[in-house]
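Researcher: Go.
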Amino acid sequence: MKKYWTIALAALILTACGEGNTETKEESVAVASNVKHPEWSKDAVIYEVNIRQHTQEGTFNAFTKDIPRLQKMGIDILWLMPIHPIGEKNRKGTKGSYYAVKDYKAINPEFGTEQDFRNLVKTAHDNGMKVLIDWVANHTAWDHIWTETNPEFYTKDEAGNFMPPVADWEDVIDLNYDNQELRSSMTEALKYWVAEFDIDGYRCDVAGMVPTDFWDNARKELDAIKPVFMLAEGEETELHMDAFDMSYSWELMHLMRKVASGEESPQAIKDMYDRDFKRYPKGYYKMNIITNHDENSWNGTADEFFGPAQEAWFVFAATTYGMPLVYSGQEANNKKRIEFFEKDPIDWSGGYPFSILYQTLFSIKEANPALWNGDFGGSLEWIETTADDKVLAYKRVKDDRMVIVLINLTDEKLEFEIDQDYLAMQRVFGGGVFTVTKNQVIAPYRYKVFMK
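Model: Structure:
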């Protein structure tokens, strides 16, 4: 039986008023990873695309028209939720789950044709962007062809029947990675999309539920075609050693919500980083999330969790250690829990209220190496204040470059002191060059960002 792992810029200064899963606990001394991050990922920002819901049409062609806007906003990586045909047997809802894959080498006709997908990839590349597709290696739909041609690829119950990997995932059945032919077939399918469609890597669903040595080998074979970028839905440290560039920062996501609600203090976030810098391989990437498809559909919108503090928390996600994620509709401040198994288009009628904020943050991330990812970027150093229980204050430092961020997490105007004066810092929101003085005043749920 297969063994399961635990799931569990200066050029864009605004005159703006700026001012599923488990938490791993093991600790160790950080070691070097064998993963070589692609150079293009050093200052990258990622956008999760829900093709079905992103547009009224719900097609590749309709989304492709939006790529120039996203490029202008500063997006570098497009992660497309699964693009494959969805199983019909035991389907959930009318449309079914993207994650119930019926054929790993085919396109969901709901989204368009192979040529439509090729055009999407080419348009992204022409706009200087990379494309990842979502890969579901742990399970398939009940009517995947392998259930007929290779039933030995699947985990069986005591009666010899196919079985879901998790009790309430009734629309999918578990794959058995003790079978070497399955491993070969899955690897060949992964290679197919890189070789034939020129995609740039994968986001791997429930990566920790698939044996790590499978991913390790798959990464080598993919890199032999072209250097790829691999994102794991998981937090296990071992995923970073040979297979994945980046994993989820679920623990940070949950802590941000707990701090926002008053359940935890900002110190909990600082403690998390202290643990992570010790236990993850040196130069690891983490994806910083305030919302994504799972969170939005099943747990709540970013507005529900953060309310008027959403901007402030995204400033943190975009400037702390890690790579920020934007989910379809997030820049529009989508306040709807999007249906998962039905057609439920995002309402863009209100425009893109967060677009300029995001564009500014992503521009300074690109311009200032202190904010780059992993070892390309700078250290994360906490700034002591007289209001440590109410603010997040920190600096990112890389050689002679620096970014200082001060965030008021409360609904009250705060007057506090920081550790020292910082000379000749450029104010990102509002413009001008200032001394960041020890005495600070920040309005409720607002923030100050300075860069050198």
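Model: Residues 39-375 form a domain with the TIM Barrel fold (CATH 3.20.20.80).
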